[in-house]
Amino acid sequence: MGREEKLLSSYSRSDCFTCERRRRAHIRKKLTIEIFVAVSAALLFSSFLYLLYFSRSPSSQEPAVQTLPFKAAIVDHLGITGWPNQSFVNRSTTILESAGFDVDYYSGEKVTVDFYKDLPSHGYGLIVLRVHSAWLRVEKGKEGVTLFTSEPYEEGKYADYRGLVIAYFSRDERYFGVGPGFIRALNGSFTQSIVIMMGCNGLRNPEDDMAKAFVEKGARVYISWSLEVLAGHTDTATTRLLEHLLLEKQTVKDAVGETMSEVGPDPFFNVKNGYEKNSTLLYYPEEAGSYVIQDNASSSLNVTTTSYVVEWASRRWKVLKVNFSMFPLISRTS
What we know:
alpha/beta
């Protein structure tokens, strides 16, 4: 081969390498632009849907999505009254957080009169009342459900508060209790909240009792027991109920029904032991049976959009790596 031919061959290889380097740089630049455009479009689309969703008038939204705050409270009064159950607290917290709720836990000593008084101000969308409750005289000539506090009863204290009751485990062990009248007199509301009252007799008389008081103050649904219930049984039932409501997205009616089919009525307070009827889990009002707790819309949207963009970018990068692998000589010399 002559000198001129060798020079031409050298120039050809050099030109080839230069072209391929340029092609590779062009592909990288194109990929960068595509990813930037895709991420920007996804963010703009997410923002558009978010604004569209939250800027609609209240009358055009589904009530469940419109007003349910994804904040939850676990009120564990039973934890200091002889029935602690950390496993229940841990499992319930996990379920709630998995469904997108921020969870606040209140230990028994925090369950005071003023705690109940301030409860509406926190804006909880779901309230789990793991509290001791009893069927006591709540007004003159009238009985109803009383929610116990951990605050010992003192004559004359809270004289200006309406609906307080003397709640007692025995004659020598008396506490302040919260009756339906106290709930009705609260400032604020439980707007569209789900209230799960795990104690005894919570739905013994729904039409003129605690359930109706919560609903009158804005709660969407109130779930509780028809008679007395053992602490271990209500813990098991409530865990299953939360799973059906929040993870499986069942209606209130189906979730309560399936929970009862799984755990059954209370094993002690039932007709087999001489009681007039079984203690079962119920809900109020009846029209809330079709209610389904929707996903946290903004969280679901962000997760879905981000997942899509990451998956798309990953696929594009794999294609790019395949394209580069077709030019091993260029890869080594660049």
